[in-house]
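JOB MANIFEST
job_type = single_chain_structure
chain_count = 1
residues = 391
[input]
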Amino acid sequence: MRRILNIPILREILRPLGQIIIFISASGLILSAIVLIISLLLRNSEVNQVTVERYGMSLFMYTVVNLPQVLIDGVTIGFVYASVALGYTMVYGVLEFINFAHSEIFAVGGFIGLELLIFADGKGWFGGAPLWIAYGWLLIAILLGAVFAGLTAVTMERLAYRPLRNAPRLVPLISAIGVSFILQDLIRFTESVTTGQFYRVFPTFGNFDERMGLGSFTVAGQSVYMNIQVKSMIVIVGSIIMVVALNYVVNATRLGKAIRSTAQDRPTASLMGINVNRIISMTFLIGGLLGGAAGVMFAMKFTRIDPFVGFFPGLRAFTAAVLGGIGNIVGALLGGLVLGMLETFAGSYLSVFTMGAFGAEYKDILAFAILIIVLIFRPHGLLGEQVGQKA
């Protein structure tokens, strides 16, 4: 095993996979332990009686029976947030600048990929086609959405950010907010002119909505079943591929070394022969590619998007990046998984534990409250910033 880890290529592929397993296991175990302890503390309360009357089982058993599915859903949402957060953390790592327009880059990719699939569905190309054709079209849509989003990000950097690179830090931040509004309205205008519709719905084809059984087990006579939608599995696998690929590019290639050098010291990197402007453009391109691919997978997962679809996922992804340690690629992954699991656990158990006083709509309050608590004690996030790394 040590010989394998000494090979740079394999090390940069296997290390993030190991980190993913550790993060999922640790966050899942901690949150599961918390809700199980709460259910045990409430076993003699009115909450337990209400749960028995409503579901025919104790509060503890209700928590256990639903726990595996809650974990699966939390991991899925967490990977969505992590894949979007990678774009935020890439740009911040090089420029120490929050690209608030990244959420609209995410939306551009989602619309481009979705429009391609809607066009193909309208032509009847999915009807009766083999299953591999459906997956092929989905892959093409993801790649096309990623390419368009990446080119949009590069154009945005060239026109709106590069002229302000030496301006006070607040100026490009305001520019990013302006670009965000411009892209939102461009998407809305384009859709109104070409389709006349505000909402776009992911077409039904393939087997993406089917559920795959992951097994079952029995606890105190209660059968617990685990399953996952095919499209959720695609989101997880796609996000893992993006994380591993980004980690490899940044840590095991010449481009990655140039990116890390630019992040550490731009003037010195320029003196050493690195074209800083090109490296920054490549950073925006990579971030845009990741955001665009995430946008298509988000459209597939949640089936419907609109021109403002990037706002809330972008806000949560930015929160995930800050929670994990903005500027830190591994931190973006950890932050996304933790935030996704927090939201899913709160949405599943908060209403039951409070007898409806606080419903699933309060899950964001809980997630952001925990973010504030983490930042009070660890201002740089769970893993800390990695803005400058040794090249």
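[summary]
The chain is about 70% helix and 5% strand.
Strands lie at 200-201, 211-219, 222-229, 304-305.
exit_status = 0
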